[in-house]
Amino acid sequence: EASQMSASPSEELLKQWESEQDRLRQRLLEEDTEAWQRDRNFSGLERVAGVDLSYIKGDHVNACAQLVVLSYPQLEVVYEDSQMVALTAPYLAGFLAFRESSALLERLQRLEHNQPHLLPQVVFVDGNGLLHHREFGLACHLGVLSGLPCVGVAKNLLQVQGVHKGEEHRAQVAALKKAGDSFPLTAASGRVLGKALRSSDNSSKPVYVSVGHKISVDTAVRLTHSCCRYRVPEPIRQ
């Protein structure tokens, strides 16, 4: 009988993913763990990476997983890996990481295996970290699984937990006068989930920076700004 049917596959999957997310969240570090992070000029930081997954319009299976590593502070590309991948997991809102993280993690593992001396000391993720429905976005997921410091940088504001694009937000954005200026994105709970950063003098549109793993929000913002030639930080832009 219909009444005896089990939960739909997506409900089952959701439960499974939620518990996996909770398990991984236990390992999340939201503070500076590396010596270079505490240095005013990030002395000791030599390699920064950017990862992204690009989709083909109208195709929800095939995507291009990309990893670039740049020298720091020069921001010149020293390594590039682009790979077409077939995504197997469905997209469920709030669970993007279950769809995208393994393809990105594979790129990092391949680099570590082939050219370990180029392994990045921090990874910029085109997406969110703590700024997420359950405070565990793609940048957190990838950070915990890779063990590398990660920063989420999004071009659009994910409106979660009482963080929204109202009048107040617009006024705060307008008040960001120069590159490097930022303001906190505070959840209804009072927790700072990330910061809006004016990353370039030439663009009044901010980027939204949040902690992925092994970095504090203030360091993440300062580092993001230091990696910007334009609005989008160079590791992600490349």
Automatic annotation (TrEMBL):
GO terms (BP aspect): DNA repair
Pfam families in the record: Endonuclease_5
Principal subcellular localisation of the protein: cytoplasm
Key word Magnesium present: yes
Any GO CC annotation of this UniProt entry: nucleolus
GO MF: DNA binding; metal ion binding; RNA endonuclease activity producing 5'-phosphomonoesters, hydrolytic mechanism; single-stranded RNA binding
Assembly notes: Monomer. Interacts with PABPC1; the interaction is RNA-dependent and stimulates ENDOV activity.
Family, as annotated: Belongs to the endonuclease V family.
Name of the protein in question: Endonuclease V
Source organism: Tetraodon nigroviridis
